[in-house]
User: Which sequence fits this backbone?
């Protein structure tokens, strides 16, 4: 079995630097946070979960068929939290520009997984980059204040040129991600 998700990696050096700086600001609250490593920052289009390794090839083929669309630009803006800033469990940065295209890619990723015969838990899609997970209640009021104060923070933009099938291996130190497949985003005549 392999644990899979379909995502867009955040690799633009300037954007990664700004997200890293933002994580340091969050950590300065001394709230119990588990930050996402810089090299693991991404926008999840579809979390699939555990699937038999034998299903991976079929999923790759369906992704090639289904995910082709034009490259586009996303702009990251605003700090937020799930389920809410006052009860943060996951702290994230939102997507302002490019949200429509991300929703379309989410739909296409869902179609690819279904066509490949892969079951997954269907969840509502809210495009975001996870910065940290909250692991307790200490100093949450400080964390909440920063989330609210930075609700309109502009972080920058990047061009989205490919979608990746990622394998996630869970370890005591955190997940290790490996790219299993890439689908370039190009102008599509479909």
Assistant:
């Amino acid at each position: 079995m392999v644990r899979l998700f379909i995502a867009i990696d955040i690799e633009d050096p300037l954007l990664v630097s700004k997200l890293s700086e933002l994580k340091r600001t969050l950590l300065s609250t001394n709230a119990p946070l588990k930050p996402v490593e810089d090299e693991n920052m991404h926008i999840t289009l579809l979390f699939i979960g555990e699937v038999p390794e034998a299903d991976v090839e079929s999923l790759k083929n369906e992704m090639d068929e289904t995910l082709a669309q034009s490259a586009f630009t996303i702009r990251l803006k605003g700090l937020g939290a799930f389920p809410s800033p006052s009860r943060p469990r996951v702290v994230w940065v939102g997507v302002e520009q490019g949200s429509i295209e991300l929703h379309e890619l989410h739909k296409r990723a869902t179609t690819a997984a279904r066509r490949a015969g892969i079951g997954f838990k269907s969840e509502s899609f809210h495009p975001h980059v996870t910065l940290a997970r909250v692991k307790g209640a200490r100093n949450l009021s400080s964390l909440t204040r920063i989330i609210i104060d930075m609700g309109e923070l502009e972080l920058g933009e990047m061009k989205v040129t490919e979608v990746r099938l990622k394998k996630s291996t869970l370890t005591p130190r955190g997940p290790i991600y490996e790219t299993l497949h890439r689908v370039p985003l190009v102008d599509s005549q479909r």
Observations:
- Residues 2-184 form a domain with the Cyclic Phosphodiesterase; Chain: A, fold (CATH 3.90.1140.10).
